[in-house]
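Q: Convert this sequence to structure tokens.
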Amino acid sequence: MSRYFAVLLSVMFLGVSTLCPGYVAGSVEENSSEIITETDGSQFLADGPPPNIISKGWKIYLEEVLELKNLKGSPISRAIFSPSGKQLLVNSENGRGLLIYDIAKKNEFQVSSAPGSGYGASWSPGGDRIAYKEVDPDSGGEKPVIYDIKANHSFILDKKGKYCGTPVFSRSGQVGVTAEKYIYLYGEKLTPEKVLSLKEPYHQMAFSPDGASVVLVTGSGILLMNIKGTRKKPILLSKELEYMGPQFSPDGKKLLLRTATGNLVVVDISSGKITELGRGRDAQWFSDSNNIIYLRNRRMLIDGENRSEIIIRDVRGKREHSVLDPDWEIISGLSFSREGSKIACVSGIDESIKIFKLTNLK
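A:
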């Protein structure tokens, strides 16, 4: 009976809050996020319905909790959706394992258990290959690796020097990797097609959506270059601020970057205009090239509270919306499915993988 009255009072409170224009519920900016259930998700498996949260046209709820076996004892870094959304690529924080998890079949397949494997792991556009970097724990030497799922074989890409960036795919399946002052471009058979010499070491790269250009990250800024190496255009020049993780928007007109200080920025490639998004990580584009989803973890030392936020931000304006219950547990390693309906995060409590369903109500 006491539970009945608690629920009744909760419904009455939410009804009043909706009618009172001065009331703000769980917002990032004014009135941007309203929780429509008291459930914090901890009783999801026992009590049925998961938490439902509405935030200005977005609805999110916990769909599934996955427990992995093969990476137990090694902290999970991320669980990345395959292009089909049917599998997850799971790697550990300390490079001690990389596996593929089939969501429907609940199967785990170990790609690599070698120490130092799995850094920067990513899927190919067709979902048939995986790129990652392997670091020798003794010598510190780095190797770019491509794993072919059908062949069940790992290929070490040919390059010079001790260090390299993480290999990346173009939409056509071409592979690129930076190694000291060189860019190596590999074809479908993973043989070097072209080697471009640069004036300074470049740490990370990304292909443009059409595959005609690459963006390069260095200590002095961001450079856009065609894959022939004949045209170069500085996008950002900064020796004081280090950038990382470049991502083109799907339409190829904008660039998403993370700074070494933990902030996110979007750069218009044509105009050079910079939009600062504030603190965040694991950011990914929506297919419309206007919205970005990312994770923001608030910390007691900086923010006066410990909690996680999943943020959706329209880069055309300044408004951002939090779509996660503020009472939810601390999470990390956000991944967004290609079709835009699923979110995967790693629990900060038990390292299980939480799968959320995201719905656009507009």
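The radius of gyration is 22 Å.
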